[in-house]
Amino acid sequence: MVPPHILIVEDEKTASKALERKFATSGFEVKIVENGEDAMTALKDGIFDVILLDLIMPKMDGYEVLKQLQDTNYPTPVVVLTNLGTEDDIEKTKILGARAHFVKSTTPMKQVVHTIQELLGLPPTPHND
């Protein structure tokens, strides 16, 4: 079985490394980029099953990435993982096409992984703690 490919768009090195480890041990092929511009380039160069997107980043923020993906009807589902968690932030990401919105400080990584596995129709990883 071909592992699902995830593009993680995260500018905080500690967070991106932790996410990379968590998704790799959950059976994903992982690519990490640090900003929205690099994300758009990666999406032109490769095929991903899902995008995990931060909102506050240099060069191009996550809102702009979502807008560009929406404008081009890009089919890959996007899950937002950010420190922005107001009702307005959540509503805005949903309007721009995000399938889920998680707040980093209050969401366990295993919940993010599980949600993405469900989104892709994958069985949950048994050791996903």
Summarize the topology.
Elements: E1 5-9, H1 13-25, E2 29-33, H2 36-45, E3 50-53, H3 62-71, E4 78-82, H4 87-95, E5 100-103, H5 109-119
Parallel strand pairs: 1-2, 1-3, 3-4, 4-5
What does this protein look like?
The longest helix has 13 residues, at 13-25. The chain is globular, with a radius of gyration of 13 Å. It has helices at residues 13-25, 36-45, 62-71, 87-95, 109-119; strands spanning 5-9, 29-33, 50-53, 78-82, 100-103. It has 5 helices and 5 strands, in the order E-H-E-H-E-H-E-H-E-H. The protein has a 5-stranded parallel β-sheet, with helices on both faces. By secondary structure, it is α/β, with parallel strands linked by helices. It has one domain: Rossmann fold (3-Layer(aba) Sandwich).
Which parts are unreliable, with pLDDT below 50 for 5 consecutive residues or more?
none
> Treating each run of at least 4 consecutive H or I residues as one helix, how many helices?
5
CATH class: Alpha Beta
Q: What is the assigned CATH homologous superfamily? A: Response regulator
The CATH topology annotation reads as: Rossmann fold
Under the CATH scheme, the architecture is: 3-Layer(aba) Sandwich
Element pattern in H and E: EHEHEHEHEH
